[in-house]
Amino acid sequence: MSNDLDVERIRQDFPILTRTVRDERPLVYLDSAATSQKPIEVLEAEAHFYRTCNASVHRGAHQLAEEATDAYEDARRRIAGFVGAADSDIVFTKNATESLNLASYAFSNATAKALHAPDSVDPRFVLRPGDSIVVSQMEHHANLVPWQEVCAKTGATLRWIGVDDEGRLELDSLDTIIDASTRVVSVVHQSNILGTINPVAEVMQRAHEVGAVGIVDACQSIPHMPVRVEELGADLVAWSGHKMLGPTGIGVLWGSREVLKEMPPFITGGSMIETVFMDHSTYAEPPKRFEAGTPMVAQAVGLAAAVEYLERLGMDAVARHEHDLTVYALDRLREMRGVRIIGPTDAKERGSAISFVVDGLHPHDVGQFLDDRGVAVRVGHHCAWPTCRRFDVPATTRLSSYIYNDTRDIDVAITGIRAAQDFFGV
Amino acid sequence: MNVEAMYQEIILDHYKHPRGRHLLDAPEGESYQVNPTCGDEVTVQVRRDAEGHLHVGYEGQGCSISQASASVMSEMVEGMDVANADAVRHAFVEMMHSKGAGEPDEDVLGDGVAFIGVAKYPARIKCALLPWMALQDAQVKAGIPSGEEGAGR
Q1: B118 to chain A: which residues are within 8 Å by CB?
Q2: CB-based burial, A357-381: b 16+ in 10 Å, e otherwise
Q3: Domain B3-142: which topology?
Q4: Residue B1 confidence (pLDDT) above 70
């Protein structure tokens, strides 16, 4: 095992990892692809905000309002810096699902407005029957269902890039699937179910060749590897805070300035306006145009503390640590009888979320045995039901590790899988 | 309580050797239920004969708890009159919502009492209830009077 991270030292920063579960067993948390645990720095940053300067931001003439606004905008600047972006290109949302809906609603809202006032919207967001939207066969439901809805509202057609038996995108078909009819291409950077890391820059380049808007779901990549958003080649990039040590209730949408500027708003109301009259309104410049209502200030402050924590560790070191753990876990799983990995079986271009099925055992029963040993994993379709169907499995068991895991955690999980096999006699 | 205690021998036996697993020739009502969090699926069919007895068919795929529960259900209610079948279903649903604290009546529930341990695991209660929810819904669709609690609707 490499020494990229001092896991013992890191674990001391996560109070929850000291608790026991199920009859005093130490908690072995291998469900970070669902949500990560939070270091004390994040918990304290959030609490400190509420204790010292809680107020509504961007309004009010008092000192607390000034301090709260500073804290919120400082968080935006630090989070932007983490991904090499300008702070004015960072939109705060509730979570990545909302970020992707914000993007998809730009198209359905612009299409609806164009029926009555064609000059009021940028034509690149207006969709018609005959247009196509392209996703992949390994999308999380959050990057699939919103596009199904856009198609239902506009008459556009949904297409997808297939996934091969190894869990890689079938890029040979890229030039035929993304063609002159394509107006949107939205794909995942790192699959939450297969672990595959996709060459999204290549997909985005093809999207731009045909004039489509390119979107990347970076939920599983930004927490786990160094990512500079502009290098993804996309117009919009969505991710969440809670998978990268941050609080729940905060997500991010990065957009190129030029695209954000032309996008119609999603949620409307206070804070996102420029002027309001009884019969119409004009809207603020991005990012405020997309942040209606009282924002998630304490959560943004917490997420800023999370990115500082990750920066202290160094994202290169985080990625190397996880790569080593992934190699170890894949080796252990591959040597087990009756275990089939769903997704790439080698650690190349692959993240630490590892799905597998066990012959003769339903994932729910595997998960129950792991839980009995204190091991927290995800079982089910991982909000990627069509991907499960692609591999002809009803569900999978998924191990997903992070900065606070080491090989001993994997070993406990492997022992639990063996115990389930023995108990069920498979 | 440990996991081995939850998976009673009776449950494993019904999982490995399901009883009455077939579809009916002429069902009067059918219900397909799925547990969207894990993908467990079950289809339950019902028919009532001239004497007012209930006949049940089912098939499905999923975890041991959901599939064993379907097998136990089929064995319990097959050929019962509707009122007795409803009483068994009510008793099973009540047991699953007991958090494992109740004393299930073996005279009413038969092999169904083996699921009392499952009631302590909130994530698995829906697995155990899935076929019973399908049974109630299939009865409603067949116009066979069923219990009052509104599951499946």
Answers
A1: none
A2: bbeebbbbbbbbbbbbbbbbbbbbb
A3: Sufe protein. Chain: A (3.90.1010)
A4: no
